[in-house]
Every structure is written in C-alpha cells, then in structure tokens.
Amino acid sequence: MRFGVNTWVWVSPLTTAELEKLAPQVARLGFDWIEVPIEGTDDIDYNRAAQIIRDNGLGVSVCAAMGPDRDLIHEDEAIRQNGAAYIRHLIDAVRTLGGTNVVGPLYSSVGRVWQQTPEDRAKDLDVLVGQLRGLAQYAGDRGAVLGVEPLNRFETSFVNLAAQAVEIVDRVDHPACKIMLDTFHMNIEERSLGDAIRLAGKRLAHLHSCENDRGAPGSGHVPWNDVAQALKDIQYDGPVVIESFTNKVKSIARAAAIWRPLADSQDALAGEGLKFLKGLLC
User: Are 66 and 98 in contact (CB under 8 A)?
Assistant: First the structure.
C-alpha cells in the first residue's frame, strides 16, 4: 500500500514551479506518493514534473478537475467532446509523469446538480458508458487506468454511491475502467462505508482518504476501523491518498466549500493524517 497526498492541500492551481517546492516537502513529511490535479492543461511541464517526482522517489497519480466545460454527459455535444479531450489529456499526462491512475468524477462537472426522470438518467448513463468505453480503450492502450469517483449529493446528482459506480464500470466492461472511492463523500452518502468498499471489491483502483469535514484522517468521525477492515477484506493494495483543499482552490471552489482552516496548518493536516493512516493500515 502506498500513502500519498493531493497537492490541492497546499496550492491551486498546481504549476511546475509549485511542484518543484512541494515534491521535496511531500517526501519529507513521509509520503511516498503525490497526486497531481490538472486544472489548466498548460499549467505544468509534464516532462520536467516527471523528473521532479522521480528525484523525490514518489509515485504519482493524476486528479481531474471537471469544470462546466468538461462534462461527458452534457446536452451540448461540444462540451461533451471537450470533456473527453480533457480526459485524454490527463491520460497522456499521467503516462509522461510515470504513473497510471487518472481519477475523479469522470462523468460531469463538479457542482452540477439537476433533477432527472428515470428515462433521462437511463439516457445519460448510455451516453456516459459510450464515452467511457472509448476513453478506457485510449487509457488501456497507454497503460493507464481510469478511476470513476462517486461524489456527495451536493456536488453531483448523478453518481453518489459505490453501487452506481459499479453499475457504470460493469457496463463499460474494460480493465482500464475502475472505481475510486473517497471517504469524505462516502461518509455522507453510504449507509456502510465498509459494505461500499466490499461492493467495489477488485474494481477499486484508488482511495481518497479524508475526514468528515475534509480535515486530517483520524480527526473526526469517519468509521475508520470499518474502512480498514473492508480494505483488508478485498485485499486492497493500491494508493491511499489524502485529499483536502486550500481555500485558494478556484476550479471547484464552490463544490469544495473550504471557507476556514481545517488544521493548525496544511502541513499538519497532511502529516497528522499520514501518521494516522499508517497506524491504521500498516
């Protein structure tokens, strides 16, 4: 199991210059993995970033920032096409960086909520499955893996539960299309975090670990023992990444809703969370 942190804990957007400062800091804190969120597609020199990440002995994954113009099921075809092009960009980026996992709500814009009839939902699911099949093929051809993430009801009305992600991934039916779960969202939506993890099973490629208030894991009321037992039950050995946010985040600021400090410092959030997770899972 690898323990990582998303750079949104400190900065937004991540640039090459910011990564140059953050990667050694992440390694000093004891992490062996760094997660790179890609907001603007020109923010990072991926070849230089790959060297920085290698020099600091870190594994890497890429996190999507799905904004209003990046939506795989939008009624506007141009927006759908732009969303797919963005995800292909992420796939190419993660391979250049030296990783495999591209994770996030790979279906619609974060913060977009809308009322659907069952017929509307079925139609949107058909559109999404078709989109993800093509993207999974693109990812698989390049040695990458997509991790589809359910979000809580306040950030999306489309995929809130592990069961819904399982339905999508099973319909796509491609080894490069898997699931990412996030304890923050699960704590809002799932009746049992452990059962949700067990339902995802071998489909689970990535885990975001965050407390109920997006603070350091172990500082709130997420049922971590249930999470740990379920990960053991499914023999999960993938990345466990702390994802929280600075209040500087722009691309998904309204959805992330970080208006106050969640720890004494961002370093404390990351470092204390890492200590807790290693004690829980190692």
Answer: no
Tens of pLDDT, residue by residue over 64-122, are: 999 999 999 999 999 999 999 999 999 999 999 999 999 999 999 998 999 999 999 99
The structural domain count of the chain equals: 1
β-strand 59-64 against 101-104: which pairing, if any?
parallel
The band of 262, judged by pLDDT with boundaries at 50, 70 and 90, is confident
Please confirm, yes or no, whether 35 is among the known catalytic residues.
Answer: no
155, 190, 211, 243: the active-site residue: 243
Distance separating the N- and C-terminal Cα atoms of the chain: 8
Rounded alpha-carbon distances, angstroms, from residue 232 to 1, 180, 213, 261: 11, 16, 25, 32
Least confident of 154-158, 212-216, 251-255: 251-255
Residue 210 has pLDDT above 60, yes or no: yes
124: domain CATH number is 3.20.20.150
**Domain enclosing residue 110, as ranges:** 2-281
Which H or E element spans position 90?
helix 77-97
Neighbours of 21 (CB within 10 A): 12
**Is the CB of residue 169 less than 8 Å from the CB of residue 148?**
yes
Tell me which of 35, 39, 149, 155 is the catalytic residue.
149
Does the model's pTM come out above 0.70? yes
Whose tokens are 């899972």? That residue is: 281
- Amino acid identity of residue 120, one-letter, is D
Is 149 tagged catalytic?
yes
